[in-house]
Amino acid sequence: MISYYIHRDRETRQVESLDPAWLAPNSGVVVWADVREPTQDDATVLRSIFKFHPLAIEDALTSVHLPKIETYENVLYVVLHGIDYHIEEHAFETLDVDFFLGKTFLVTVHDGRRRSISEVAAACQRNDAILGEGPVALMHRIVDNMVDHYGPEVDEVEEWLDEIEARVLKSDRKELTSEILAVKRDISAMRRVVVPQRDVVGRLSRREFEIINQEMAYRFRDVYDHLVRLADEGIIFQDRVTGILDAHLASVSNHLALVSKVLAALAVIFGPLTIITGLFGMNVKLPHFPGGEDAQFWWVFLGMLAITAVLYSLFKRRDWL
Questions:
Q1: Among the three residues 222, 252, 282, which one is the final residue of a domain in this structure?
Q2: Based on the domain organization, do 297 and 172 belong to the same domain?
Q3: How many CB atoms are located within 10 Å of the residue 45 CB?
Q4: Quick one: which of 87, 128, 205, 252 could link to 220 by a disulfide (CB 3.0–4.6 Å)?
Q5: CB 152 within 8 A of CB 160
Q6: Whole-model pTM?
């Protein structure tokens, strides 16, 4: 489905169909074509009316996992990613938004769930000046909005790290290991998108392309700085989650060592008792302790009790129990 927005005679409005004459450089019309959930019919429009390169159209109809930027004659093709973090599922959903940027038009292709696109579309209908600034300024507004949405998602990751860190300090449950590794995967997924996206926006801010003037380069540089901060935060998060994982594994190891120490001490205590019961349980004559037959049991019992008390006090004094 394609929605068309045009700015003509200082007025922005949504139209049902596109007049190819509006795409001419001297038409005085700024066109924004927003393609949601693209179909083959939409691809035909992009090919026949906008004259986009077939390879770029093919990429726009499929999911591109990494941001990129390419030029096709007078059209700049850019792929960037929005973010949607589902903390319950431990998953960063980063779906691409494709931009076709020309001198008088901007074409966006996405899955229809991009908040940035819908917010900017609503703003264009309220304010005629937004689309009137031109397609480059419109693209900057969308990209800036996409990057702004990274902030709350990153804050959510940081809060989750704080919660796990507090739980690690209070508990040494082995189940925490899987949660920590899940967060580590989330952070890695974020960095895999943010770092290439930073490089793409950096190229837009350095005026590598004729269509980006100096004023727009300044605006993209502000977005680039934001992405640099996000990339740096990703590194900090990775270091932090690595430290949390090390602390948790050390806690688990200490707990296992304590359990092993207690079991070893118990084995040492019960070792002499096993020998004594084995000796006196044999059907052979053994030396008798003072007293009659009934007193022999109590002599053995008291001896075992004394050995247990001595070994226990020794281990307790050495803090082995």
A1: 252
A2: no
A3: 19
A4: 205
A5: no
A6: 0.74
